[in-house]
Amino acid sequence: MIVTKPAAAMAVSFFATCRAGVAVLALGACAAFADYRDTVPVLRIGVVENHVALTNPLKLEAVQQAFSKTLGIPIEIIRMRSYAALVDAHASGRVGYAIHSARSYAATDAACGCVIPFRTPVAADGSSGFRSVLAVGDSVTRPISELRIAYSNEDSVSGWQIPHQAMQAGSLETPQLVRAGTVAATITLYGAGEADGFFGWVPDIATAAGSDPSLLFGGWNRQMVLESDPVRVIWSSQRIPYGPHALHRSLPDDLLAALGAFLDQMPENEPGLLDIFEPFFAGGYVTPGLKDYENLQGLVVAPPDGGDG
Hints:
It comes from Hoeflea phototrophica (strain DSM 17068 / NCIMB 14078 / DFL-43). Helices cover 37% and strands 19% of the residues.
């Protein structure tokens, strides 16, 4: 005997099935439209305490509000006492986003392999990196091993760490080294004839000659350099990119994209904010290449308390 369901029961079953289908579709739609705002309750940005934005409460508030308004999530800017503290906080995930020096990024990457450099700041001269150089008097012809070469101090990436790495690797002869203490003292020693040359840096600008003495130290103390005996560059390192903005890999890709877009648009949409957020880089940002920071791997032996200069 064939048993058929009453019409009312069939109708209930039909509508229940429809409701279940709608629920599944709704869940699918929610999943499709879910973004970082559903999973990141707050974004913590680590910044070393000497950053200009941290010296003025109004500037700090302006930065936090701009990021929060654009991203649609709360922002906390976390003050770090040193780059070593920043490395520890970023590697452990206590901050998700950090503004690094070149060396502190290298140390963080070596510590955990858990950070992504997604933007590099650009200087007003158009450079997004620098090269360590050895500059000597124009009339100096002796081998490098016989020269007295001044350098600032052991914390300087360009003035000591990169040349020292090259000397250890055998790609640069070791001269007679004279510790000056500061960049100004380095130039003074050379100008007084107490050194045959010095280690410094020049911005890496595609349209400029890397041997132009006026570019030494990014043009800082240019008059002092030019008033000394003429110099020429006899050794240059590989390009070292400026310290990047980096995100912890545990954070969503769409947050990375949103942050990148915000920084890209900042020079045009928020020029005043750029002046606060990047006081030393007025040219905006570029997206670094996947291998841009590989040259920094040899800089992580000592604690990364120094900056990029």
